[in-house]
Amino acid sequence: MIDRSKFEAEDFLIDATFQHYCAGTDRLSTAYWSKYIAQHPEQQKTIAEAEKLYQLLSGNKAKLNERILAFQESFEQVKTVPLKLRRIWWAVAAAVLITLGIGSVFFVKEKPQPAVYADAYHTASGERRKVTLPDGSTVWLNAKSTLKLDKNFNKSNRLVWLQGEGFFDVTHSKKPFKVQTSEFEINVLGTAFNVKAYPDEITSEATLIRGLITMQTVDGAGIITLKPSQKITLYKKKNATILPQLKRQSKILPPEITIDHYQLVRDSTVVETAWTQNRIEIFDQDFGEVKSILEKWYNVKITFTDQELEKYRFTATFSNETVKQVLDALQQVEKFNYEIKGDQIKISK
């Protein structure tokens, strides 16, 4: 999670999603920051200063230096402005103006035409696969995933559809590369990112490793711009298949988003993409989440005899271990019993 406890006004303002919140142009950003502000009353004064700075920088057509001067003069207690702070203000102002200048590019969306998919790639439970696309881009598919290419891929477009999880390393081209899932669409030019969108999980994720991407929900709620190391988690809307998990797991009412940074382990491995290195990285996850990972990785079905077991939390790394060895290791952290019969695993207290 991002630690914003020591953020100054400028730190909030250089975040593109905070700028969209201030402008009121993006429902996803507005929902995220409204919730954040309500949960952190101790930072409301600082955030109010950031919002005031945004309005001063974007509220009229005055020259950039006049906007910054107006902001400085609005704080009577500041008699002199240190050189370092002046540099921060210039950087913030530039970030805001860039966002304002290109915002229309992100928010003008043509009416989509129905895609017709041709080539398709699939992975089964326990299988991971590397795919090289016609434009030279590569995609690693995690277990139980499907990737479909539009019939005009690399001709008139670079459009793909993903269900499951994929790590994309996209070759730069004038044709935008688009990834569609059931919850959102990602637009890129050339970059590396991970998308996780399994239909049986309560969240979908997009994690940016390199470059720049924009993500828009299919219901048109808004567009989020991701910067390197950022990760967006989208909580799905209620439906019959995921509602029981939502009741068990949290007080969160979907749909919502969280914006964080990806997680690094001690050897600088990115947790969200460790699977591409044939590693399972479990980072402070509950047993319910671990269950989903193990089922796909080992092609097994896991059931709990007590819902309290799903609240157990683990942090661990596995590479070549069997599922039995994984469960044995987890037993060293929390007390539970398990029984394996073929591909069926029962976990009990």
From TrEMBL:
<dbReference type="Pfam" id="PF04773">
    <property type="entry name" value="FecR"/>
</dbReference>
<dbReference type="InterPro" id="IPR032508">
    <property type="entry name" value="FecR_C"/>
</dbReference>
<dbReference type="InterPro" id="IPR006860">
    <property type="entry name" value="FecR"/>
</dbReference>
<feature type="domain" description="Protein FecR C-terminal">
    <location>
        <begin position="284"/>
        <end position="347"/>
    </location>
</feature>
<dbReference type="GO" id="GO:0016989">
    <property type="term" value="F:sigma factor antagonist activity"/>
</dbReference>
<keyword id="KW-1133">Transmembrane helix</keyword>
<feature type="domain" description="FecR protein">
    <location>
        <begin position="119"/>
        <end position="203"/>
    </location>
</feature>
<dbReference type="Pfam" id="PF16344">
    <property type="entry name" value="FecR_C"/>
</dbReference>
<feature type="transmembrane region" description="Helical">
    <location>
        <begin position="88"/>
        <end position="108"/>
    </location>
</feature>
<dbReference type="InterPro" id="IPR012373">
    <property type="entry name" value="Ferrdict_sens_TM"/>
</dbReference>
<keyword id="KW-0812">Transmembrane</keyword>
<keyword id="KW-0472">Membrane</keyword>
<protein>
    <submittedName>
        <fullName>FecR family protein</fullName>
    </submittedName>
</protein>
